[in-house]
Amino acid sequence: MIPQVADARLHVDEAQRWDVVVRPDRPWWQVDVKELWSYRDLLLLMVRRDLTAVYKQTILGPLWVILQPLLTSIMFAFVFGRMGRFAPPEIPGLLFYMSAIVPWGFFSGVITRTSQTLVTNQALMTKVYFPRLVAPMSTLLSAGFNFLVQLTAFIMLAIAYALKGDFHWNVGSAAAMLPVLVVLVMVLSFGLGIIVAALTTRYRDFSLLVGFAVQLLMFMSPVIFPLSRTDPGSVLRRVVELNPMTPLIEGFRAAFLGLPTEWSSLFYSAACAIIALVLGLIMFQRMERSFADVV
Predict the structure, then answer these.
(1) Residue 91 near residue 169, CB atoms below 8 Å
(2) Domains of the chain: which residue ranges?
(3) Are 248 and 184 in contact (CB under 8 A)?
(4) Residue 100 above 80 pLDDT?
(5) Please, what is the Cα angle at 107 between 202 and 252, to 5 degrees?
(6) Are 208 and 190 in contact (CB under 8 A)?
(7) Against a cut of 0.85, is the pTM above it?
(8) DSSP string covering 171-187, please?
């Protein structure tokens, strides 16, 4: 009996020796930028995958990046511009609506795609470790690439209208604000996107709600009509101005088409973008510890 007791004690000592509690090496509110940089190769691979997988085995391929906003703008120009007479008469309806649909499409696309990015990458997340923030960042960068391609197509279309003589395109000093507008749209969409992504890991139907809400939010923004068409002080005007995308869309139209806008309203969009980014990072980092268990 004595050897059996000694053997039992040996097993107990070994079990206690290898009883390790795994804890994160940093607090949940801290973002490890150095670690994200070390995984830049994975980030680029995921961006490349997102860019190639969407249009793989399609007839038109990457041309869909340009055709989607172009066809939508044509429809809006006919329905809301010509029939509804919402567009300014001195600006071609196609240019008026495409100047808003391109940034709005990027904003809504980042939010809806980011809401599913952790769920779609669950096979990878449950097998190997990598900073979970890489997944939504890859969505942002791939959507940002498409966004820049669409902006380039819009500029070429505006040049074609100007050369034809249908539109007097006078690029003024407002065009210098274009980089600021692009950065603000990216920060705002990324911040809201990671908030949705963090919530979607626990509540899957939340992504369906967000997709529906983003579609409704477009009608509360000056995509269909310019903000100048609303009465100052009216309820509709105040509701539209609560949308942080309103100053950005008006800014894009001012930068591209020379329409008047209040540049001071960009401070509201910038504040909303910073708050969304900080809140999104806090929620994402805090829920990151249980992602692999719930996705």
Answers:
(1) no
(2) 26-294
(3) yes
(4) yes
(5) 160
(6) no
(7) no
(8) --GGGGGHHHHHHHHHH
